[in-house]
Amino acid sequence: MRRTSASLVAGALVAALAWASSPSSPAVALDPSAGVADLTQDLNQILSDSRLTIARAGVVVKSAETGEELYATDAGKLLIPASNTKLFTSAAAAETLGLDYRFTTSVLSTGRKAGKVLAGDLVLRGTGDPTMLAEDYDALAAKVADAGVKVVTGKLVADDTWFDARRLGNDWAWDDETAYYAAPISALTASPDKDYDAGSVIVAVAAENGKVKVTTTPDTGYLKIVNRATAGSETDVLIERQHGTRTVVITGTVADPYQEWVAVDDPTAYASSLFRESLTRHGVKVLGRTVTGAAPEGAEELAAHESMTLGELLVPFMKLSNNIHAEILTKAMGRKAANQGTWAAGLKVTTDFAKANGVQVINMRDGSGLSRRDGFSPGSIVQFLSAVRGKPWFGTWYESLPIAGNAERFVGGTLRSRMRDTPAAGNVHAKTGSLTGVTALSGYVTSADGEPLIFSIMLNQYLSGSPKDIEDKIAVRLAQFSRASAGGDPVQLRATDPGPAGDLECSWLKPAQC
């Protein structure tokens, strides 16, 4: 299990010192206006790119030391943030739930146990843990067997009532239904690997002896696989779950191994099927069928599993821009604050927290930014990023942001292939955002003078040619910023080809692609 390493914790402490809200040493400035004027001229030139001619561009840059606004264009305009929404969700979760918060998945029994027979039901109860793996459900089943239970006369009850029954977020696109980045949300769910893409299964194909072999991770009988693919000279294959079903149809040709992350139709049913299969492997037979419902009062706990802490979860959540983590944390906040595991209750927690920290322009429809009706202004994002610097959890949260140019996937995250070998590399800590026609980058950078800066770049409604390189140019220019002089010579923004991921972030493409 990937956890926050000692080096990351140490880095968080160093970052906390560098980015603490108390003033640091004043920036050296022979003529404070000269460098700012040069910066303004350069940013205006970068934003004059023809791809933005009919687009909307909002950019704000602020000194974290003095609060001075160094640059602003359309600072107060409502723009689509995409995954920049996660800045608000993650910070509100750190504030509301605390960095030590853990999700608990438990197994309860009803009725009486006589010898090896439980005369009652077995209840699997979840609270939304997105890090539950098949092996974790297997460990719970092993504990049930170790408790001496071999036969359950009643049913297996899947209790997902910690959250409401609404599975998909506001305004999510219908054609994303089977995509892992828009998987259904449930208090009982499972992830296929340690990226923790809850509610999805990895379906892999490989050509063997002239035929196409299909495997799943985890190995599960939950999905119905219809394999129509054939072995061929090239890999051109489609792996697609049919709308509203558990059926995955595979078509095309396969030469090289290929895999796809596929969202399940019902994460509660999927998780309970994994648990039931594990019970069988450990010699526990449940005579009744699997149903959903709430555990009755007085049910006795037989086994429990606790997740990693929220402080540790922030790493895969923010580095890889995990949409499902954002939505689960939103409902978890609602449950804690209002005893309602709903989007409405959770979004109120986040928006109230944002407004309490000076945010004025905000419209949240989900926790991840998948909704195209989410809206923030770049000025509000910069205000928020400035306000949270004084929070006790800031160091851990700051280190969870993607770091430009760091090739390590769980450090550089969605910025790992961007701004390498530039003054921004290892310097910019920022959240990316991507939707069709939308890109955003907001976060922190230290100038050439050692002055901490906060910035937000939001580009909307461009028609072709992703302008992520424009974001990079701005971020590099901020890293070069000196109040006493003009910026340095133009630099190469990417030292290497970003590969097939192109301009999309890892919340849309998986490890083999980014």
Automatic annotation (TrEMBL):
Q: Which Pfam families match?
A: Peptidase_S13 (PF02113)
On whether Hydrolase is a keyword of this UniProt record, the answer is yes
Keywords from UniProt, A to Z, are: Carboxypeptidase, Hydrolase, Protease, Signal
Q: Which SUPFAM superfamilies match?
A: beta-lactamase/transpeptidase-like
Q: Which GO terms describe its molecular function?
A: serine-type D-Ala-D-Ala carboxypeptidase activity
EC number(s) recorded for this UniProt protein: 3.4.16.4
UniProt GO BP: peptidoglycan metabolic process; proteolysis
Q: Which InterPro entries match?
A: Beta-lactam/transpept-like (IPR012338), Peptidase_S13 (IPR000667)
Q: What residue stretch is flagged as signal peptide?
A: 1-20
What family is this protein classified in?
Belongs to the peptidase S13 family.
Q: What is this protein called?
A: D-alanyl-D-alanine carboxypeptidase/D-alanyl-D-alanine-endopeptidase
Source species of the chain: Nonomuraea deserti
